[in-house]
Amino acid sequence: MTPYHQLKKIFKKISHLQYLQRILMWDESVMMPIGSGNHRASAIATLNSTIQKMLINKKVKKLIELARHTENFDEWNLANFNWMDKQNKLAASIPTKLNEKMTKASLLAEQAWRQLRAKNDWQNFLPYLEKSFEIVKEYADRRSQVLNLSLYDVLIDEYAPGFNQTSIDNIFSELKNAILPLIQKILIKQENETVNQSIGAFPIEKQKLLGLQLMKALGFDFQHGRLDESHHPFSSGGPLDARITTRYREDDFFPAIFGICHETGHALYEQGLPKQWLNQPVGKVNSMAMHESQSLLIEMEVCCSFSFFEFLTPLLCEQFGQQDAFTSENLYKLVTKVRPSLIRVDADEVTYPLHVILRYELEKELFSGKISIKDLPARWDELMVQYLGVSTKENYKDGVMQDVHWPSGAFGYFPAYTLGRLIASQIFSTFKNFHPGFEQQIRMGDFQLLNNWLRENVYSRGSLLSVDDLLTKITGNSLKIEHFIEHIKNRYLT
Amino acid sequence: MTPYHQLKKIFKKISHLQYLQRILMWDESVMMPIGSGNHRASAIATLNSTIQKMLINKKVKKLIELARHTENFDEWNLANFNWMDKQNKLAASIPTKLNEKMTKASLLAEQAWRQLRAKNDWQNFLPYLEKSFEIVKEYADRRSQVLNLSLYDVLIDEYAPGFNQTSIDNIFSELKNAILPLIQKILIKQENETVNQSIGAFPIEKQKLLGLQLMKALGFDFQHGRLDESHHPFSSGGPLDARITTRYREDDFFPAIFGICHETGHALYEQGLPKQWLNQPVGKVNSMAMHESQSLLIEMEVCCSFSFFEFLTPLLCEQFGQQDAFTSENLYKLVTKVRPSLIRVDADEVTYPLHVILRYELEKELFSGKISIKDLPARWDELMVQYLGVSTKENYKDGVMQDVHWPSGAFGYFPAYTLGRLIASQIFSTFKNFHPGFEQQIRMGDFQLLNNWLRENVYSRGSLLSVDDLLTKITGNSLKIEHFIEHIKNRYLT
Lengths: 494, 494
Hints:
Chain A is mainly α. Chain A has 20 helices and three strands. Chain A has helices spanning 3-30, 37-56, 58-70, 75-93, 96-118, 122-147, 151-159, 165-190, 204-218, 254-271, 288-302, 306-320, 328-335, 352-367, 376-388, 414-434, 438-443, 448-457, 467-475, 482-492, and strands spanning 225-229, 235-238, 241-246. The interface between A and B is medium-sized, with 32 and 32 residues.
């Protein structure tokens, strides 16, 4: 066995344990009894450090050096090898103790967040968040020595490799400048629009049935995945065991249905990854930015289009009976209603980027030392008023406590949402250039063409290319904001 | 840190991974999408071999030798240390390759069994079973060199440590001789009894509600456990995350309810284990024989008693409405109806031991080389006719294919059920000597006294003592069949 083949065997075992880790993460959010949290956090920390030990085993380092000088890599194997090298170096930079401390702290903070957010209890949440931030800084500091990046850039690199504070500053300032005046125009245009709210109780069982119908139509493979319910929608598992969740409200079916559409986008990506590279680094999703682009492409570009409502409306009537609100025109108006609001995950797609830019600004201030964690609520409120004209004063639960990311240690994640959103528009616009008649197929609920195209152009390429190279390969260009802006103008101002 | 403290740290990590392993085993049976089976089997095999490597790490062996000569153990720590030593020796006897092969083969055979049993397809099942048997023999052979026991005794020791073929031969032949004539007497006594079958559809949701009520009454802690549905009832997880399952039939609530009572017995044991030893070998359940004794004590001694039906009947009426069959007298008659039948898990408690003795006889013949796997259906039929007067000719699914144990590699497990049943009667009879008025509390649905007593006498002792020592400590005697026989006579012939 060549050194590289030995490496592949080791990374296959690592991938096995990572798959189990993701199933256990799903279990923690969906199934685990509440009293098991502490014990589970310890056990997961042990599993994580076991994986880390496998990654940083001296033998791995030695095999990497041997393989580097002996192996004749083709394109895929070279990319795979480079990921092995990077993962080994990064893992080696984090002491096992820190890794365990981080895993446990993040799980405990996440569990505390669930309790304390409901009570709007910022004071008791503060120490958890401070601890998360301290540990993440220590972690970023270690990694920065390998990557030769600033602390915040280390974290950006984790979720959107190839991007950094400078490139994101450029993109986000362009985006903010374009979006703010558009919001004003859209608000004026929509001011006198009349919309019928859907009314009634929408039994959860029926929402679930409808969700399953949509997942099937969108191409979800139920032999290798499932739908469940959780506090917040998410997707986990992996290519052969893709699990998505949503949350239900009896009085409104939109949150559950769009949660499902979004997470189905994630799952389609996972299920479309190259099977021959299943257990190797190059066979994983390209990055979280690309992952979010695929969920947002399905949710925002496809499932919020007027054509989609022509497909959806009869299905809604079938499940919930007819009512005045159930016309494609009205439902489309409901979904494309722009309204500056407090909660990121409930925001419309026009104001959404501002929620992300706000978090990005605060993260920059935190990492530059300009502010500290305890200053967050005041700064949050300030920027919310500035960007969206709404205040979160003393309303922590709908302000700084609304997201799980910070307590769970995922500082630097937020930009990936908006980068992903921009990527989604850019990729979908290329797809529509190739297939200008696709609207008609959405109307029929036939997503096979799109599915196949995304599989061929995005999913099946795994982590072969960087975000930028992949985007350029698919669309001919690096990331631009213009496709997204074009989309907003088309959907909201024509 | 002393060598023993270092060992405790290592075994804590092992215990963490074993907990995750049990949650993943639960997931595989309850949640996993069907197409993930193969991939999951590989991943679990990797986790198992990871645990094995931690157990047999040279450092562990060295620490054990150091600790043996330096540590002044108290009773609990000595027992804990002896378990560490035994587990290390046993794990070291199994090559990693064999361990992985075994895990994967057993998961795949179990998955095949689910499909092929439904089709009564013995021919395609045969190679799976042959492979399982071959691997188990190889495994037992390796362990036999450490334990200095015969192949079959190695397997018995795994589930009922301290017992062996000789001691079980004695117990089972005594038991068979006592039971066979009793069955004849009971059949004659019950011949002219009239019983009302319960009729109607029993909605699964209501069965589940009733099940949850019973779990609560019996003392199940829902902060640290949950109830789900699976192909076959089982319990998994651990002390802080005890998960039980049952299966539902619309036309009959008994299987689901008694499945729940049985598995609740297992879970109460887990939840009552000594918390201060949570992650150490001595803090685990004593043995599978003792585990089964606790499930059977709750199911058979408590939940099949007449007093229990006085508690249960009003709850049944509440869920399903009144009907002629719903009187305590009639339901008790239904549950205590003795009827020689094909399926072990559906058998009444009087004929049940014969199902186990049959399997025990066949296992002995397999391990002595007297028969081979392909001979099983014919020998099965022969013994079924001899013991119970019913034939399974060409009915493989209700004969040799009915149990998951053999395909999953658990040869040697079956005796633990009947040893457990005998232990249950012996322990419960001691309890009743101390608390002769307990029937009255069952009638009220108050199980706290029993719960506390079992917690104090059984659960909280973990693996401190051998099966025999524990039983002697609680009841004053080694295992005897007389308490069980007495129970059968009291319940069925007075």
